[in-house]
Design goal:
The chain is of the alpha/beta class. Helices cover 28% and strands 28% of the residues. Its EC number is 3.4.11.-.
Length: 432
């Protein structure tokens, strides 16, 4: 598989996935093109050995399963998340100030706010509407042109700005949207964009979940194109690589890709890692293709392994003191095993040994990350999924800069490294 072709697919996926709903739709599109059959949770499932299926929940989370050709005894799972920090519109977003219609926003997740200023912003998300015949439908919307901006205050009016100041998301982050506009203008524009994208004219807007999106395209950066710069690398990068590995695997083993929504806000939702989505799917699969009942499910879970993939903090050349001296992962230095004694990451020596052995087998360099002992540590879906299901779990990720910024940076060569390892994981006949 050409590395250049893979990177082009990655850039296209990032460009077309401004929200978790779009990301899930494009994952599903590629799965169906590869022969995966969609299941609905409301249907009775009829599964066959060797079959490839997927299921979504809330249109923003997805579980894809490559069922083993023999009896189901163990699963190789790769987990990631579809959501990213950012700015989402409030239900009644219209705000008026000095002749401008602005959009009221709330911060989703732990976003870096300063990089959102002076950016060309589009609008994307999910809209629910009622047709003339009373039918209610949800549609995706992606206004992929600049329609808003959050202008900075000139330095002449705030001479202390470069000395650091707090940003107030309620009073200072409302993007400028339309000169002289009012609330009906916002609704009129939404209807117009829906008509343009879906050909739907006679509809009533019922509700929406919309977010601002950066209009700068993903790009390969650097003299030798050694970097990837894009919005939402955390964690669409892992979603993409997990899918690539699943599609390239040999199909003999039981393999699962799970992409949960709501990781950036704690995962406590029906489709988040703390919710029942993955467990619901695996129990139904276990009952049909494995040993039925709770004991059979527990035996399946304890024979399986989960690699939770979520990006890691790369060593920053301007801030080397922010890392432990022995644990500073480098861009293009290979995937990173993430460790935390307080279980903010789910890695233990047994699961780390499995990953190191896989890296050795496919000749991929591997790195380690532990946060400084005097700094706090983030978390992932790994510890949450392990807690909910009891799955032996490992946390890994590709190193990146500017995590939670509107534009993040990762290493281009690392994409191939992690894809190679995860493919080997899906293909391995025995799990340690």
């Amino acid at each position: 598989m050409s590395q250049d072709a893979r990177l082009e697919r990655l850039l296209d996926f990032l460009r077309r996935s401004p929200t978790p709903w779009h990301a899930t739709a494009h994952l599903a599109e590629r799965l169906e093109a590869a022969g995966y059959r969609r299941l609905l949770e409301t249907d009775a499932w009829q599964l066959s050995p060797g079959e490839r299926v997927y299921v979504t929940r809330n249109d923003s989370s997805l579980v894809a399963l490559q069922l083993p050709r023999e009896r189901l005894q163990a699963l190789r799972l790769v987990g990631a998340h579809t959501d990213s920090p950012g700015l989402r519109l409030k239900p009644c977003p219209a705000q008026y100030s000095t002749g401008w219609l602005q959009l009221g926003v709330e911060v989703y997740g732990g976003a870096l706010l300063a990089p959102w200023f002076d950016r060309d912003l589009g609008l994307a998300g999910r809209v629910h509407l009622r047709h003339a015949d009373g039918r209610i439908e949800g549609v995706l919307l992606d206004v992929d042109r600049p329609v808003a901006i959050i202008p900075s205050l000139a330095i002449h009016l705030d001479r202390e700005v470069n000395n650091g100041r707090a940003l107030n998301a309620q009073t200072q982050m409302a993007p400028v949207f339309l000169q002289g506009g009012e609330q009906p203008d916002f609704e009129r524009l939404l209807k117009r964009w829906i008509a343009e994208q879906h050909g739907l004219e006679d509809v009533e807007l019922l509700d929406f979940e919309l977010a601002l999106r950066d209009m700068q395209s993903p790009a390969l950066v650097g003299v030798d194109a050694e970097l990837i710069a894009s919005a939402r690398l955390d964690n669409l990068l892992s979603c993409f690589i997990g899918l690539e590995a699943l599609l390239e695997s040999d199909g003999r083993q039981g393999a699962v890709l799970v992409a949960n929504d709501h990781e950036e806000v704690g995962s406590a939702s029906a489709c988040g890692a703390q919710g029942p989505f993955l467990g619901d799917v695996l129990r139904r699969v276990s009952d049909q293709l494995g040993e039925a009942g709770e004991e059979g499910f527990i035996r399946l879970i304890q024979s399986s392994r989960l690699i939770s993939c979520d990006n890691a903090h790369a060593l920053h050349p301007s801030f080397p003191d922010k890392h432990d001296a022995a644990h500073g992962p480098l861009l293009n230095g290979g995937p990173v095993i993430k460790v935390n004694a307080s279980q903010r990451y789910a890695t233990n020596s047994a699961t780390a040994a499995l990953f190191r052995e896989l890296c050795r087998a496919v000749e991929v360099p591997v790195q380690s990350f532990v946060t400084r002992a005097d700094m706090g540590c983030g978390s992932t879906i790994g510890p949450i999924t392990a807690t909910e299901l009891g799955l032996p779990t490992l946390d890994v990720g590709l190193p990146q800069w500017a995590m939670h910024s509107i534009r993040e940076t990762a290493g281009a060569r690392d994409v191939e490294y992690l894809t190679r390892v995860l493919t080997a994981f899906f293909d391995c006949s025995e799990l340690l």
